[in-house]
Specification:
The protein has about 475 residues and is mainly α. It has one domain: Amino acid/polyamine transporter I. The protein has 20 helices and no strands. The longest helix is centred in the first third of the chain and has 36 residues. It is a multi-pass membrane protein. One of its GO terms (cellular component) is membrane. It is found in: Membrane.
Length: about 475
């Protein structure tokens, strides 16, 4: 009987938790290997980590201003649509759905599976099929939770943010203790220029920026934020500074305990660190890292479903995906859409190839979004924004993003070409289905498809949601009964 819409349930604490929970995930536990491999030395890798943090702060400030200028949810998509037009926004949506988001989710899911199984198979590596199976189970669990309740997804994100910071602390503290005792042998000749290969630096930045990625997550849920004009800039600044400090200390701890060859040879750097420095926690830290990845998966599903929801509302995606579950108030069809592609990429993909594959498209469109901020300022000088950054911040961030994207063609031409092809394949789709008027025959066929989507699939998703909800409630009752018995 009342209006159905996404409620304002994300407070400042939940916004901060969403950002921390999205940034501190698999990246800091798997990216040190990629950064070191492509930067060449310990010193240059630390420079890359700090530069990526500074660059993330610039991007986060640009997105904070965009979030106060443009009042819609949708993140990169809505910012590009409102500033640069429908074609680039559709190309982003196309690349995001078919390349960026499933590859990103697959990377985080694989890291979750690897760290979750590590204590059971140490010192041997966990079997690849087992890793992929656990990865998919973790992803499907988060998918079910986001279909069930916005409130519980937000509460889980808050709890896991605390777990993430605890995991970082368990790495930082023993590393700092050893450093204070004089263990600096791995920092000797830290800036070895002979091992520096300039054409590999974009890949080092991709790995580092992947670890920081998540600073833009509040822009996806702008309409669900309480007091967004105040809470977006505040949450962004505090969370990014927290993560920069945490990441720098974590990397120093890694290099205090592990040598260059140890980091490069390790499939799970955090586990190798604990095996060397803190053996009493050998079974605890991998589980904490896996929970960190779980939180990143939760944040990713939570935010990307809002992109599909907004794109459907704007007429660039089927109307089914702008629907909200009547009782749950969750964008259920948008949440459920991703799982076939993520399943396929988890089954066939490798972490580092997937990382380069989706990073090209992601940073191309983030650069375009901040370029859109410059364009929007020029077109609407009269528009008052409650939060405004100096012009050199979006200009420098845009130039660095686009330059890194261009340089990556020399670093990894195969994966980058695949990513570029995925983006360009959206052109004919846009002009055939979005821009150009369809013939009567095509329109009739499209209408039949739309009637099916509006009548059959919503009832299917509603039935599926009720079934999953019932099973989860039974499971919670069993757990509560076991706790009482214990």
């Amino acid at each position: 009987e009342e209006a159905i819409f996404l409620r304002k349930k994300i407070t400042l604490l939940r916004a901060f938790s969403l950002l921390i929970g999205s940034m501190v995930g698999s990246g800091i536990f798997i990216s040190p290997k990629g950064v070191l491999k492509n930067s060449g030395s310990v010193g240059f890798s630390l420079v890359v980590w700090f530069s990526c943090g500074l660059l993330s702060m610039f991007g986060a400030l640009c997105y904070a201003e965009l979030g106060t200028r443009i009042t819609k949810s949708g993140g990169h998509y809505i910012y590009i649509l409102e500033t640069l037009g429908p074609l680039p926004s559709f190309l982003f949506l196309w690349a995001e759905f078919f390349a960026i988001r499933p590859a990103n989710s697959a990377v985080v899911s694989l890291a979750f599976g690897r760290y979750m199984l590590e204590p059971f198979f140490a010192p041997c590596a966990a079997p690849v099929p087992a890793v992929k199976l656990v990865s998919l189970l973790g992803y499907y669990t988060v998918l079910t939770l986001n279909s069930w309740s916005v409130t519980w997804s937000a509460r889980l994100q808050t709890a896991l943010s605390v777990v993430k910071l605890l995991a970082l602390a368990l790495i930082i503290v023993p590393g700092m203790m050893l450093l204070a005792q004089g263990h600096t042998e791995h920092f000797q000749d830290a800036f070895d220029r002979q091992s520096l290969v300039l054409d590999k630096l974009p890949l080092a930045f991709y790995a580092g920026m992947f670890a920081y990625s998540g600073w833009f997550q509040t822009s996806f849920v702008r309409e669900e934020l309480v007091k967004p004009e105040r809470n977006i800039p505040l949450a962004v600044i505090v969370s990014v500074i927290t993560v920069i400090v945490g990441y720098m200390l974590t990397n120093v701890s890694y290099y205090t305990v592990l040598g260059t060859q140890d980091v490069l040879a390790s499939p799970a750097v955090a586990v190798s660190f604990v095996q060397r420095a803190f053996k009493s926690l050998i079974s605890v830290v991998p589980v904490l890292v896996a929970l960190s990845c779980f939180g990143t998966m939760n944040g990713g599903i939570f935010t990307f479903s809002r992109t599909l929801f907004v794109a459907s509302r704007e007429g660039q995606w089927p109307p089914l995906f702008s629907m909200i579950h009547i009782r749950r108030h969750t964008p259920l069809p948008a949440v459920m859409l991703m799982f076939p592609l993520v399943t396929a990429m988890v089954c066939i993909g490798d972490i580092y190839h997937l990382l380069n594959f989706f990073s090209f498209s992601r940073w191309l469109f983030i650069g375009l979004a901040t370029l859109g901020l410059i364009v929007h300022r020029h077109r609407h000088p009269e528009l008052h924004s409650p939060f405004k950054v100096p012009l050199f911040v979006p200009v420098s961030f845009t130039i660095i993003c686009l330059f890194t994207v261009a340089m990556s063609f020399y670093s990894d031409p195969v994966n980058i070409s695949i990513g570029c092809t995925m983006v360009l394949s959206g052109f004919p789709v846009y002009y055939l289905l979005i821009h150009r008027q369809m013939s009567d025959r095509c329109r009739n066929l499209f209408s039949i498809s739309q009637d099916f989507l509006w009548t059959k699939l919503p009832s299917f998703f509603s039935t599926l949601s009720d079934y999953l909800t019932h099973k989860l409630q039974l499971l919670l009752e069993v757990v509560q009964q076991e706790i009482k018995t214990y």
